[in-house]
Amino acid sequence: MKRPITIILLAFIALGYVQSQGNKNTNSHFLKFDLSSGLHNFHYSLKHGEKKGGMGYGINLNYHYFFKSNWAIRTGCGLQTFYSEAILNYTHSVPAIDSDNEAYTLNTIYDNWREEQTATMLSIPVGVAYTHQLKDKWHLFSSLGLKAYVPLTARMQSTGGSIETRGSYPQYNVDLYGMPQHNYLTINQSAAKSLDMDVMLAATAELGVMHSFSKINIYAGAYLDYGLTNTNKSSTGDVYEINEYKGLFNSSQVEKIIPLAYGIKLGVICDLSSITTIF
């Protein structure tokens, strides 16, 4: 958690230095407001099962300060939503000893078990932007940088399927099931809980075009955010253990979890060059 925050703080210090130097020559700057939509998901690999991504949305406000005619430092903030779904079909087996000191195998059977993970993140980008006039009032806009994701809400919820636990005694050729008093039961009701996630760092890139209307520019572009830090806490154990649903992110079924988002943006860019600011 400390590393992403340190990188962002250093980037802000660099931003302040560039602004102080740039004030000797220019104070060109603008605000960019946009709405984004695309595939926003937690990218991870399942040991057993299938993973699906989903649509996410964002609202962003960024400040750009031009230290050269075409180059700017940018920062800002935004909100982004993330969605992923996992479908589990496997059997988890562990050796155990019962109350009569008999050895047996505890089997946990996941039959089309579905779990969703959702989150709303505060995003804080820092980077550089480049603009280039294409023709008349059309301009190319591009940017590269880093983005910190700060989790505001993060939850998991099961949405279907079943989990069944059975006790297998191979020495007697017997499988015990349908005995809740002995924890051999079938679970098909919904389970939900909050997810504990750290601040994450991502590389971010954007490419688009803007059309000028005096001080206001209409903007359309594409973006990509790719996670650089792993939010997985290296949990052990299975998704479900006796009398406790731990959830996918709190199990050993996933090893690396990073944010991944890409899609399109639509917005406006307001030229603030004629406005006196504190920068």
Summarize the structure.
The protein has 279 residues and is mainly beta. It has one domain: Porin (Beta Barrel). 8% of the residues lie in helices and 63% in strands.
Which terms would index this structure?
mainly beta, 14 strands, eight-stranded antiparallel beta barrel, 279 residues, 8% helix, two-stranded antiparallel sheet, Porin, rod-shaped
Could you explain how this protein is built, in words?
The protein has one domain: Porin (Beta Barrel). The protein contains one helix and 14 strands. The protein has one helix at residues 2-22, and strands spanning 29-43, 50-53, 55-66, 71-97, 103-135, 138-169, 174-176, 186-187, 192-194, 200-213, 216-227, 240-241, 244-245, 258-271. The strands form two sheets. It has an eight-stranded antiparallel beta barrel with strand order 1-3-4-5-6-10-11-14. Residues 7-25 have low confidence and may be disordered.
End-to-end CA span: 29 Å
Order of helices and strands: HEEEEEEEEEEEEEE
Structural class comes to: mainly beta
The geometry reads as rod-shaped
Sheet having the most strands: 8 strands, antiparallel, barrel
The number of distinct β-strands equals 14
The strand order across the widest sheet is 1-3-4-5-6-10-11-14
Number of domains: 1
CATH architecture: Beta Barrel
CATH class: Mainly Beta
- Supply Rg: 25 Å
Strand content: over 45%
Runs in which pLDDT lies below 50 for 5 or more consecutive residues are: 7-25
Number of helices: 1
Q: Which percent bin holds the helix content?
A: under 10%
**Mean pLDDT, nearest integer?**
86
Write the CATH fold name: Porin
